[in-house]
Amino acid sequence: MSNIIAGDANATGWRSATQKFGGFLAGMVIPNIGAFIAWGLLTALFIPTGWLPNEELSKMVGPMIVNLLPILIAYTGGRMVHGQRGAVIGAVTAVGVIVGTSIPMFLGAMIVGPLAAWLLKQVDKVLDPITPPGFEMLIGNFSLGILGLLTAMGSFAGVGPLVTWISDRLGEFVSTLVESQILPLASIIIEPAKVLFLNNAINHGVLAPLGVQQAAVDGKSILFMLESNPGPGLGILLAFWLFGPRVLRGSAPGAIIIHFLGGIHEIYFPYILMRPVMIVAAIAGGATGVATFMLLGAGLVATPSPGSIFAYIAMTPKDGYVSMFAGVLLSAAVSFVVGMLLLRLGKAGYDNLEEATAASQQLKKG
């Protein structure tokens, strides 16, 4: 009996640790959702395939996703760990990881921002007690500047290439699944990678080039649909809207519009980060969509960018609408049902937004 109790306690401990970790990651992203929406609207409106194509205004799209958003995430993560000083060194360090790679560095920013802030916190613990009166600002600024230089260099040389290597390995694994004709299993890799903001790297770095080759021969390719399917995200957001924490229900409808109609999938990632078990719903929905696309012979003529339902309609061959809609709707239905069950089963104590806020306040207090 004691072993069973111990096992339950361990399981609860693991769930609690996973919950807190997901809440911490979400805490870096959620305060910056407005910036994501601004970038999403800019993308949906002004890129060449957008609603109001504008070559000049679309020049802001790249710098925002490559530079601004990762810096904001690292800044917020650093602030959660060590207040304003942690925020500043987090942003400085993020520049190193951004310059050290060619893909959007959301995951890298999530790593280096809090890490740099933690290192500065340890340095401050040593220097603060021995700093002579009147020299606090001088020593504080120089300690942050010198450590910021070192962490930026370290992230440039190490973290950026590491995240790029991880992205490349995930891409190779997906390519193996494609070549082996077991595409639904690709969702096991694609959906978690998306939530870690590696979606653009996988889609545009791996799937799109392979899809172009296939479309050149067959006139369409299912590979364009593996990562970009808006169905799983729609189902998850619907589940949060109807069965999620009350604090999130008000934001879910707006997120649904941005995600499904605007094609900005990043909008639902924080919801999963706050409730990591919901990745199971994303995988189930993604695999269902891919299996349906395969069985019905679906495919797109080019990459839908951004991945909205309107882009899907525009890129679908004239004889492929039934199979396309079937895959999108079934994937949404499956992710909704699985997400609903997961949320209802975990109803006790799953209000992670408040937990993340409380945890960040505790971290600020040291």
Tally of DSSP helical segments: 15
The end-to-end span amounts to 39 Å
Name the helix and strand elements from N-terminus to C-terminus, one letter apiece. HHHHHHHHHHHHHHH
Poorly predicted sequence stretches spanning 5 or more consecutive residues: 1-11, 348-354, 356-366
**Secondary structure: helix percent:** over 70%
Count of individual beta strands: 0
For the report, how would you describe the main beta sheet? none
Envelope shape: globular
Computed structural class = mainly alpha
Indicate the mean pLDDT: 81
Rounded Rg: 22 Å
Strand composition percent:
under 5%
Structural account:
This protein is mainly alpha-helical and 366 residues long. It has a domain at 181-366. Helices cover 75% and strands 0% of the residues. It is built from 15 helices and no strands. It has helices spanning 2-29, 33-46, 61-99, 106-127, 136-179, 187-195, 199-218, 231-243, 246-249, 252-261, 269-274, 279-296, 309-315, 321-345, 352-365. Helix 4 (106-127) packs antiparallel against helix 5 (136-179) and helix 8 runs parallel beside helix 14. The model is unreliable at 1-11, 348-354 and 356-366 (pLDDT under 50).
From the structure above, extract its key features.
single chain, 366 residues, mainly alpha, 15 helices, 0% strand, disordered C terminus
